[in-house]
Amino acid sequence: MKNIERTINETYTPSELVINWHITEACNYNCTYCFAKWGKPNELHRSLEAIEKLLDNLADYFIKGNSSLKQKLGYENVRLNIAGGEPMMLGSTFSIVLMLAKQKGFKTSIITNGHYLLNSKFDLPNNVLDMVGISFDSQRYDVRCEIGRVDRKGNSLSSDDLKFALKKLSSTQKGIKTKINTVVNKLNWQENFSSLISEIKPYKWKILHVMPYGEDELLISKEQFNYFVNMHSNAGLPIFAESNSAMTESYLMIDPKGRFYQNSSSGPGYKYSECINDIGAEVALKQINFNHAVFIARYFPIESIAILENKVVAS
Ligand code: SF4
């Protein structure tokens, strides 16, 4: 791993640091493989004061400060990525978070299942979002139902819904970048998305290997994952693939309680810091293992990544 780290540091500097805030565990879908399950914690977003304090703590350390992390990574922007659960379930609070984040100097993005983008009652303020990531796992309704990507009434985002939602968003969020996230699993690893992704023309199509958190029956081998990647690699699509190891210790993540947390490389489960609002971002970050080499590797496109025996290396 040391050699990999050196190679990456010598050849690449990300211009953007991404902080993922999993703001809520609530979701209108019920995906089998979902790992956004924290057991009903007291979520920080219930207090606007706590939200603002958290954003100030993060801005002070990551944007205004000159931390060793900033020096090591050399990033120019900090993007606050709001994920869940389904963050748009928070309604007006969700809009306030985005507006405050913009005021404090963050770039903003969300990861959403897209359901509430179709809802005409939900008015996102203009120009608060720089990027949207929409999770989309199958063009087939029956497969989406089997995965659990469906609400209680049987509503599920179709390919046409996805196209409509993106069109609507781009009319209120100037210059918004689109990312499609697809979790490759036992039910979709042979499905061809080429024509849909070609039509949508996202900035990124992120392909993720299903993680071993949910039902084992959806897990696939690394050969099946690579089959999916290879099936799409000659179509000129903006593919970014992540193997399991690239997803371990490679994200800066904040949980609904406002703590940094990290996938553990030594076994299942997470490591948590204390609440960032209690001890500040710098001390909280030291309490988890943040692997900046793998973080940087996440920004390489598939062409320059070799997925070898579950290790991501720069080629
Ligand atoms: S849509 Fe996302 S947050 Fe909701 S259940 Fe599925 S994976 Fe989990």
Automatic annotation (TrEMBL):
InterPro entries in alphabetical order: Aldolase_TIM, RSAD2/Viperin_antiviral, rSAM, rSAM_sf
GO molecular function: 4 iron, 4 sulfur cluster binding; catalytic activity; metal ion binding
Lineage: superkingdom: Bacteria
Keyword terms: 4Fe-4S, Antiviral defense, Iron, Iron-sulfur, Metal-binding, S-adenosyl-L-methionine
Cofactor entry: [4Fe-4S] cluster
SUPFAM superfamilies: Radical SAM enzymes (SSF102114)
Keyword field contains Isomerase: no
Pfam family, one: Radical_SAM
Sequence ranges assigned to domain Radical SAM core in this UniProt record: 13-238
GO biological process, one term: defense response to virus
Protein name (record): S-adenosylmethionine-dependent nucleotide dehydratase
